[in-house]
Design a protein that fits this description.
With 173 residues, the chain is mostly helical. The protein is built from 7 helices and 2 strands; from the N terminus they run ααααααββα.
Length: 173
């Protein structure tokens, strides 16, 4: 296997393990809690990740274009996926597991040929297809950071110890 592709597989596997730990034992109260009214909830972030993972898998397996063509298509896609934390977590795990299996079955050359140029958002700059596996891992890591921050803030506001790095000397309380 190509070393670059092996590195991408390892990176995706590692962030997926961290993600599962980051959402382990999340409470129903945490799922829909907002630190302020305009903030995302863990539930909304998870739905977003599930939607993106579906597209990443379709691109890897079939060379499918992003469903993000315009604001209306994005809205239609979003409303088609309910805010159901448990269901979206199960589906995200299935999609991510299939994505990792697809990466293991392919080569870097096949990945470059089969996947398509993609734009993360309508009107955004297109990315070359060979960064698909990198984008998936980075995207998941970014949102994992949000989820961990939300969970820590939720606990802090209730006088509970933070779940992630509760005694980190680089972040004194």
């Amino acid at each position: 296997m190509d070393e670059a592709l092996q590195l991408m597989i390892q990176m995706n596997e590692g962030i997926w393990r961290r993600f599962k730990d980051g959402v382990a034992d999340v409470t129903p109260e945490e799922v829909d809690w907002q630190p302020r009214p305009q903030a995302n909830t863990i539930n909304a972030i998870l739905r977003h990740l599930r939607i993106e993972a579906q597209w990443h898998l379709a691109s890897l397996e079939h060379g499918a274009q992003s469903p993000y063509q315009d604001a209306a298509s994005v809205q239609q896609l979003v409303v088609s996926v309910p805010l159901d934390f448990e269901r979206n977590l199960r589906e995200l795990e299935d999609l991510y597991t299939r994505f990792l299996a697809g990466l293991r079955r392919t080569t870097l050359a096949a990945l470059q040929q089969q996947t398509v140029l993609f734009q993360v958002f309508p009107g955004g700059a297109p990315h070359s297809a060979d960064v698909l596996s990198y984008h998936q891992a980075v995207h998941l890591a970014i949102h994992l950071g949000q989820i961990r921050s939300i969970r820590n803030q939720y606990r802090r506001e209730r006088g509970e110890p933070e779940r992630f790095f509760p005694d980190n000397p680089t972040f004194p309380g």
